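Methods, example record. To illustrate the input and output format used throughout this study, we show the complete record for Methyltransferase domain-containing protein. The sequence lines were provided to the predictor; the line carrying structure tokens was produced by it.
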Amino acid sequence: MPSTALDPTGHRAAWNSVMTGYLPGLADLEQVITTAAERRTGPPARILDLGGGPGLFAERLATRWPAARITVADLDPVLLALARAALPTTVTTVETDLTDPSWPATTGTGYHLVTAVMTVHYLNPAAIRSLYAEIRRILAPGGLLVVADVMPDDGLPALMTALEAPPGQAWSHWWSQLASAPEFAPLMDRRTEIFRSRPPAEFTPALSWHAAAARAAGFPEAGALWRHGRHAALAAC
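The corresponding predicted structure is encoded as:
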């Protein structure tokens, strides 16, 4: 069903609420990312958001940098349909399987900023290492990679990590709302087929693991950009 038949407003607003619960400090993270990108190269001309879902972060980036050409890459047809129905023409969406090493063929190269927010925990260690190597190849000179996900620090107090239990009920409710909407039925069926044999890896190593993997992929610099409890952001350039 064409994305023009979808009304994305309420679903995208609800997704934003769910993601804010999953990733405490989301607004601060986004501010840190944009500030880091501007300090490095000025307003980025080309941006790639991997696992960008319904495109809320991309939309905010487009508002901050109207001249930027932004690409949202995701494998989920439901989330991509919501993105296509709402995003401005400066944002392109592509269906991309990050476990396939040829994925850059769908996105192109020459990006000044590549982001992956709550995306890499779906991948196993080998796939993450391959992903970082491919990102290194598609970055423009001076470009920046930011990966934000669950990256626990063994030194965190147990209470802090306990307070960040993922709101699974809100997540389930959001998907059940879509499943009950007839206009989403074909997309939900396709999503079921895609993910039937793709259980999430739920691989969540420490930030130091990600930094080492990024350096092994050819990034001269890799380290912490942001932290909020169990969640952290890696910057590599």
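Annotations derived from this record:
Confidence is low (pLDDT under 50) at residues 157-163.
The CA atoms of residues 21 and 112 lie 29 Å apart.
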